[in-house]
Amino acid sequence: MSERPIRRVLVANRGEIAVRVIRACRDLGLHSIAVYSDADADAVHVRLADEAVRIGPAPARSSYLDIGRIVATAVEHRCDAVHPGYGFLAENAAFADACARAGIAFVGPRGETIERVGDKVSARAAAEQAEVPVVPGSALLEDADEALRYADKIGYPVLLKASAGGGGRGIRRVDRPDELGTAFAAATREADAAFGNGGLFVEKCIVDARHVEVQILADGHGNAIQLGERDCSLQRRRQKLVEESPAPGLPDQLRKDLGAAALRLAMEVGYLGAGTVEFLVDPRTFDFYFIEVNARIQVEHGVTELVTGVDLIAEQLRIAAGCALSVGQDDIAARGVAIEFRINAEDPDRNFFPSPGKISQLRLPGGPGIRVDTGFEAGKAVPPFYDSLLAKLMVWAPDRDRAIARARRALAELTVEGVATTAPLHRRIVDWDEFQAGTCHTGSLETLLDQAARPGSPVTWPRL
């Protein structure tokens, strides 16, 4: 892969990830061009960029998801590269291909790689080819009857999963045969609405599993490295709320095996750029199973940056320019512990109902070991059209106990007024015995919240 200078970068996103990319461009001496919809005309990323261009009205399909408009904007403004961030078009193979046809570097994998790993069925096949353990499951299903036959074969509970899925959508847990027909129809509808593809496959449900993912980087010179793992088990409705690195309580050999498996898969698919290989880990046996590849930068990439000292966005831009990685595998060693709390504009007391509106006051924590990534300020509005992520509060400390203590202090300092947020929930999480013990699995938080909501529940989880 030959080097091609990158001087001007179109940031094809919004919110905190757009701010993060713009800052990386500034550090590297690159010229950043932001795009914005009508809802984001006064947004922070618009002010911070060197230039900003309106690309359409508020609905994402008419702005941030308009491939033709974004590529045309990049061409018009003489951009050498487009950084898609996460979400929106970040894992859209057609977008990556459109950038390539226009002679613009797409900051991410090639379109063909995105297509291969973005489809969960083909990604499973690639994992099997790379000798990476996969959860027992099927190929693409023809209908509910085929799903029923396969579920009977592998045993309940099972998960019906969208082949083109992501973000926890298009997934249904099925505990009994008589539930499968209804669940199949519902998952098909959701997958078709969310991804334009209603294809499903069935997979064995690993009960009480931990969700552990491995960060990878690969360049066009044959170099690929893994930067350790993150634990993302604290979830609600398959949406991550807290992430940390390293994952607590894993045997050292398992950490090595997870990293090695992620690299084998990366080499199998010819991966380029930053990505994440996600696994389920059985906490009873420490067996692990591949579940998917996220062919982009992750929301939680900051915790890996805090423990490794590697600027993942800068590495993405260097790779897109045809340069070799600036670090090797021997340079990567986790130092300390980092934990991220997603501060969403949602009301935990109203079943996490979205809370758009104007932020009347925003005071962010500071001090040693504190990092806050946000695309908002006091006086700015949280639009109702997009993801509810308001900020990512990250803490670092030499060990996990001190990281939790630092998180408690940082969350106490955080003040957000004008919109409801998940910050009160996080303040309780840091004092929750199961979290402090590092033993949470993917169902832990949801089970606790459900129990606490029942009348007369003995669970001492007061209203937030």
Task: Tell me what the structure shows.
The protein is α+β, with helices and mostly antiparallel strands. The protein has three domains: 8-107, Rossmann fold (3-Layer(aba) Sandwich), CATH 3.40.50.20; 136-204, ATP-grasp fold, A domain (Dna Ligase, domain 1, 2-Layer Sandwich), CATH 3.30.1490.20; 210-453, ATP-grasp fold, B domain (D-amino Acid Aminotransferase, Chain A, domain 1), CATH 3.30.470.20. It has 15 helices and 22 strands. The chain has helices spanning 15-27, 44-48, 67-76, 93-101, 111-118, 120-129, 144-154, 177-195, 252-269, 301-308, 312-320, 400-413, 423-429, 433-437, 444-453, and strands at 8-11, 31-37, 51-56, 81-83, 105-106, 158-162, 171-174, 200-204, 210-218, 224-236, 239-245, 273-281, 288-294, 337-344, 346-347, 353-354, 357-358, 361-363, 370-374, 381-382, 389-397, 415-417.
Please tell me what the overall shape is.
globular
* Uncertain runs: none
Q: Look up the CATH topology of the largest domain.
A: D-amino Acid Aminotransferase, Chain A, domain 1
Radius of gyration: 21 Å
What integer is the average pLDDT? Answer: 94
Q: Could you name the CATH homologous superfamily of the largest domain?
A: ATP-grasp fold, B domain
- Give the name of the CATH architecture of the largest domain: 2-Layer Sandwich
Number of strands: 22
What portion of residues belong to β-strands?
A: 25-35%
Amino-to-carboxy terminus distance: 53 Å
Task: Walk me through the topology.
Elements: E1 8-11, H1 15-27, E2 31-37, H2 44-48, E3 51-56, H3 67-76, E4 81-83, H4 93-101, E5 105-106, H5 111-118, H6 120-129, H7 144-154, E6 158-162, E7 171-174, H8 177-195, E8 200-204, E9 210-218, E10 224-236, E11 239-245, H9 252-269, E12 273-281, E13 288-294, H10 301-308, H11 312-320, E14 337-344, E15 346-347, E16 353-354, E17 357-358, E18 361-363, E19 370-374, E20 381-382, E21 389-397, H12 400-413, E22 415-417, H13 423-429, H14 433-437, H15 444-453
Helix pairs in contact: 4-5, 7-8
